[in-house]
Design brief:
6 strands, three-stranded antiparallel beta sheet, alpha+beta
Length: 203
């Protein structure tokens, strides 16, 4: 939130569906907070809504994140991204990039920055092409005895700027011949450095 440009406010909450242990965990967190109080600035608070433990930071309130509120699993964009993920992940991350860029633009518009800065920053971001990004999703989980990960990046419109670097053919199996048989992990990637230099010069 940007009630004042010089002092933006961040609202954060951590939610834990603790089931029957929710009440016990709530009391444990409150005892720890009483024993070792946090600095007043973060405004840490612990509350509970049935089986959901809610830790709020900043000006966030438990009512903003109560289980009765509409959840992200009802958002069409989130559901579409999750279709590309593994069905039963142990960890899931999701970011609505369009809302993030909108928040940045809102903060910039309300800031006391000089007009040329307010014009240059959005122009630079547009030149990078990142405003075409709509969402990011990640899921990691166990696949039998192994750990597997999936990632999804949503893009709208034609790829411009740095996003044109994504227009590369899939990686073949050839690099696998270079990986030692006893390797614990490896990473393979492709990059067109000539294309990257050309896009950087346009900014």
């Amino acid at each position: 939130d940007f009630p004042t440009p010089q002092a933006p406010k961040i609202n954060v909450a951590l939610l834990c569906d603790a089931g029957p242990d929710a009440a016990t965990l709530e009391q444990l967190f409150k005892k720890l907070a009483a024993k070792s109080p946090a600095p007043p600035a973060p405004k840490l608070a612990v509350s509970r809504d049935k089986d959901v433990l809610i830790l709020t930071i900043g000006n966030a309130t438990p009512e903003m994140f109560a289980p009765a509120k509409a959840r992200i699993n009802t958002v069409p964009a989130y559901l579409a991204a999750m279709k590309s993920m593994r069905p039963d992940p142990a960890l899931t991350l999701y970011a609505d990039l369009e809302k993030i860029f909108a928040t940045v633009n809102d903060g910039l518009a309300k800031s006391p920055a000089p007009p040329e800065v307010k014009q240059r920053v959005p122009a630079t971001i547009a030149a990078l092409g990142v405003t075409s990004l709509t969402q990011f999703a990640y899921a990691g989980g166990f696949d039998k005895k192994e750990w597997a990960e999936d990632a999804f990046v949503g893009i709208k419109g034609p790829r411009v700027g740095l996003l044109t670097l994504l227009d590369t053919p899939p990686i073949s199996d050839d690099p696998l011949r270079l990986v030692p048989k006893d390797a614990v992990a490896f990473t393979v990637g492709k990059a067109d450095l000539t294309k990257l230099l050309a896009e950087v010069r346009k900014i």
